[in-house]
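User: quick one, fold this
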Amino acid sequence: MTRIKTLLMAAVIFAAFVLGGCGAASPMDTAEEIKTELGGYSSLTLTASITASYENCVYDFKIKCVSGDAGLELEILEPESLAGIRAKLEEEGFTLSYDGVEMSTGKLTEEGMSPAGALPVLIEQWTEGYASGAVYETYGGVETLALDTNISDTVKQRTWFDRETHLPVHSEISENGTVVVTCDFENIVTS
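Assistant:
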């Protein structure tokens, strides 16, 4: 009987040890995995539906973003009146163009962030930003990791990443606690 008790006790200890070591990764560990994965891609292409909330009006855009070795390129897909306008972010700076015409979208934050600049800022935060918070939660029926970073003292971002694919689902940029930009992502391709 003592031998059986000893074997049972050893089995319980072993199970506790193995099961304890097999627990799910912490949210901060998953945040680091996402940062490493997104930073390791040579290119990232995605489409984002963006809502920009100014003090007296709200604008909706749909933008295609391609980030790669040559820099970051944005193309406005919607609204139709702006479709085809392209922006390119390179080391030299940020340029907007459409048949030789330049577009100014206005600044959303005191730091001067515009709706066109939201995607480059988000991508930079995902790949280089310091996580100020991370939690597992459900967003739109998807199991996600909600990751917070501080863009500045007053501007913060939160992105919900699909826990399975580690790709972005939704982002919010806020200034002084007020959401000024929301982004919903689709058609994401990485390589």
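User: anything notable?
Assistant: Helices lie at 2-21, 27-40, 115-128.
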